[in-house]
Write a structure and sequence with these properties.
- The radius of gyration is 37 Å and the shape is elongated.
- A hairpin with a 5-residue loop joins strand 1 (103-118) and strand 2 (124-142).
- Helix 7 (354-420) runs antiparallel to helix 8 (426-461).
- Helices cover 58% and strands 12% of the residues.
- A four-stranded antiparallel β-sheet has the order 1-2-3-4, with no helix packed on it.
- It is an alpha+beta fold.
Length: 474
């Protein structure tokens, strides 16, 4: 696998780094191991190769969800932290660029002097005078070897990496909000199911008690039915706790006070068949984490080039000029101006191996960045393939569980009828009720897992969550 291009968001900017004067070219090295991307996704070769939608949140067709994602983009502290780091890196890049320009310093001093003197005739006098001094100094390193330019290019690459990090943070936040939103919906569905179960066991207990009063059944049946009802009550409390926790977690993502009061939709969204997901080779143009890893590799290579040029002579131009006068208006008298220009060449001779070992250090860091980039690329492909495979597996499981729910409901109704006629024992009735509860719980869980896995797939594919996020990244 050879070095792939970065994300389209930073590709043009990264290419522009090499356009600066005397900027050394970044070496194009091959990654260890040749792993070319396939022509289609191996986990689902039938999925369309059409490009992924620019705003995948719209695929869930939930306006409330889209609204909450926009709120999180405006308020979430983690996203603000990522933006602050982006601003820091941009400022650092501008600071590094200042090294390519001359530095100019000006100094102005104003002095009021008083001195005493004794004349030959013995008269003591006092002399007062003003003294104004204006001086300027210019220092400029002539970057003939490209050392400064390489450092500037490295700082620019760091800046582009934090820009990609910001996009990755925005994408991750959208995915986290969406998953948390679905967890709240599923928790509410589980609570509603728990309440239905309590009602069902209450009805069964009334039937058993009625039969006990008529002497048709015994006290054991009453105890077993009461035990099932209390277990259902405990489960209802557990589901209430789960819903409360899920709501508070979502509120924190939105930077709201975790009061556990947030409103969401009533049901999980229906999942449409997968549409266009693009080609595997196009993945690297969408993933911001891949782009960040790529430009950090470029930054590491530029620092290797800069450290090598530390071994070469440094050429500096120094200039100074000044004027000293007793009258402020005389500053404009250029005939009295004093100036000096000095050119110096400094060659490192002995520094205890510091410079050469600095080259080795930066080379090792570049090798680490190269391996990190390779790992990031492979992880990106793995995440997409895994989510694609899980999408198919979870869909099949949901179909089986939906059928299991229908069978369990039918069995529960039959057990209810037979027990009312005295044709079966209470244990069969209670067991059928538990089976229906378990099947419906599993169906809700699998639908939640499918929805969250679809989010994982969109996250792995990269790209903006909402159209507003897409506009913000431009």
């Amino acid at each position: 696998m050879r070095r792939q291009g970065p994300s389209s968001v930073v590709a043009a900017s990264l290419s522009a780094l090499a356009l600066g004067a005397c900027t050394p070219a970044v070496p194009q090295r091959a990654l260890d191991g040749d792993v070319p991307p396939p022509q289609a996704w191996s986990a689902n070769e039938d999925v369309s190769a059409q490009p992924l939608t620019d705003a995948w949140i719209e695929n869930f067709e939930d306006t409330r969800l889209a609204e909450l994602v926009d709120i999180a983009n405006e308020r979430n502290p983690d996203l603000r932290i990522a933006f602050a780091r982006f601003e820091q890196s941009r400022a650092s890049a501008k600071i590094a660029f200042a090294d390519r320009l001359p530095s100019l310093n000006a100094t102005f001093t104003s002095t009021r002097l008083q001195s005493r003197f004794t004349a030959p005739n013995g008269i003591v006098g006092v002399v007062r005078q003003n003294q104004f001094v204006l001086s300027g100094e210019v220092n400029w390193e002539l970057d003939v070897w490209g050392r400064v330019a390489a450092n500037v290019a490295a700082a620019d690459a760091d800046y582009l990496a934090t820009q990609a990090d910001l996009e990755a943070a925005r994408l991750s936040l959208g995915a986290n909000v969406t998953r948390s939103y679905f967890e709240v919906i599923a928790a509410a569905e589980l609570l509603a199911l728990a309440k239905e179960t309590v009602t069902s066991f209450e009805r069964s207990l009334r039937i058993v008690e009625s039969r006990y009063r008529r002497g048709i059944t015994n006290a054991l049946d009453v105890r077993l039915a009461a035990n099932s009802l209390e277990g259902a009550n405990a489960l209802e409390v557990q589901r209430e706790s789960g819903l409360d926790n899920a709501r508070r977690s979502l509120e924190v993502l939105l930077a709201e006070y975790p009061a556990g009061k947030i409103a969401v939709s009533q049901a999980l969204p229906p999942l449409e068949p997968l549409q266009g997901l693009g080609l595997p080779a196009e993945l690297l143009n969408r993933r911001p984490d891949v782009a960040a890893s790529y430009v950090r590799l470029a930054a590491a290579d530029y620092r290797v080039a800069a450290s090598k040029r530390e071994l070469l002579p440094a050429i500096n131009l120094n200039g100074s000029s000044g004027n000293q006068t007793e009258a402020f208006s005389d500053f404009l008298d250029f005939d009295s101006l004093v100036w000096r220009i000095t050119e110096s060449l400094t060659q490192p001779l002995f520094q205890g191996g510091r410079l050469r070992n600095n080259v080795k250090l930066n080379k090792a860091r570049a090798d680490e960045a190269l391996a990190t980039y390779a790992r990031t690329v492979l992880t990106a492909f793995q995440e997409v393939e895994t989510a694609l495979a899980n999408d198919r597996f979870l869909e099949e499981r949901e179909a089986f569980l939906a059928a299991a729910v229908e069978e369990a409901a039918a069995a529960q109704r039959l057990a209810q009828q037979q027990y009312s006629r005295g044709l079966t024992q209470i244990l069969n009735l209670l067991d059928s009720q538990r089976r229906e509860l378990d099947s419906r719980n599993q169906l809700i869980d699998i639908r939640l897992a499918r929805a969250q896995n679809r989010v994982n797939l969109y996250l792995a594919l990269g790209g903006p969550v909402t159209r507003s996020a897409s506009e913000a990244s431009l």
